[in-house]
Amino acid sequence: MSDDFSQEQFMYCFPGRNASCVMEQFSFRTSFALYLVFVSGILVTILGNSLVIVSICHFKQLHSPTNVLILSLALVDLLVAVIVMPFSATRTVHGCWFYGDTFCQLHLSFELFLTTLSIFHLICIAVDRHQAICNPLHYSRKITISVAVMMVCVSWVLAAVYAYGVIYSKANMAGLEDISESFCLGSCFVYFNPLWGMLSSAFCFFFPCTVMVYLYTQIFVVAKQHVRKIGDKNNCLNGRGRGGLIKHSESKAAKTLSIVLGVFIFCWMPFFMQFIIDPLTGFHIDPYLLEALYWLSYLNSACNPIIYALFYPSFKKCFHCIITLKIFSSNSSTMNLSVK
What subcellular compartments does it reside in (predicted)? Predict the structure, then answer.
């Protein structure tokens, strides 16, 4: 009788169906707090990336190869907030996927596609910044708007082929037929066998991370050499007056690069590490931890407009014009965005 009583304490995602997942039973306050956090994160992501998109599209001074990449990245992160995050929020709060197997597969493919695409854009931006700092004399010839558009198109196609190919071919589930039968009804997560777990982590994180670390390290070294040469010339002409300014420039460059790499690694490394560890441990990862890793990766979509836009003073001026509705004034698209 005690066993029957203990079973009655559980609510199931699909009552009356065999192997149904157990529904989360948070209190009203906890559920409300979780929804408040998720909705706030979604709105911040939508608002931040929308401001970036409107700024680049409206203000002609921002029409540059770098901003073509930032525009596409903002669109990707906006789609993550609109298409992926709301459905993941209901799954997290209730512990159930209520939208059916077909939409689950579509959701997972969109999720994998957009998150992979976001990472590919970060590589493109790193390449663009590397050329601008390390090869400034040839930058305008090598990196044009057409080249930036081509980089964007290649990123979209490559990410789509990978994500939809893996999910719909079920290559990631090869060899997991016996284990998949133990997955409860009402769960909607992407699972990888050991081979595809390692391949996906290498393709989507470790390779991009290595490329970004290499490029940003070179950028930092070259930028430091540049400011040192400028500092030496200024010291010869003006004494030591420029020393503090040079140190400030070096410090700012180091801070910017450390934030770019730090946020990227912080948001993505735990997520892709579980792609490798979970298959090797029999998929026993705690569901709460798994949900936390998903939302940690979504956080990068909220951080990207801050990292890649707010560091540029011209974007701050654009945001101010949009928020204060000055964007609707005549000739606002041709206004000077230079900050004195």
Answer: Cell membrane
pLDDT digits (tens, 9 = 90+) for 270-284: 999 998 888 888 788
Helix axes 65-79, 287-308, angle to 10 degrees: 150
Query: What pLDDT digit, counting tens, does each position of 41-56 carry?
Result: 999 999 999 999 999 9
At residue 160, what is the residue type?
A
Q: How far apart are CA 14 and CA 97, in angstroms?
A: 10
Residues 6+ apart with CB under 8 A from 216: 126, 129, 130, 257, 260, 261
Tokens representing 324? 């204060």
Mean pLDDT within 163-178: 84
- Domains assigned to the chain: 30-177+186-330 (1.20.1070.10)
DSSP string, 251-280: HHHHHHHHHHHHHHHHHHHHHHHHHHHHHH
pTM of the model: 0.86
Q: How many angstroms separate the Cα of 173 from the Cα of each of 109, 158, 167, 202?
A: 14, 21, 9, 18
Rounded to whole angstroms, the Cα distance separating 17 from 300 reads 37
- Taking residue 201's Cβ as centre, other Cβ atoms within 10 Å add up to 21
Distance of CA 181 to the CA centre of its chain: 32
Q: How confident is the model at residue 238 (pLDDT cuts 50, 70, 90)?
A: low
Residue with tokens 């004034």: 329
Say if residue 42 is exposed, middle or buried (CB neighbours under 10 Å; 0-12, 13-18, 19+): buried
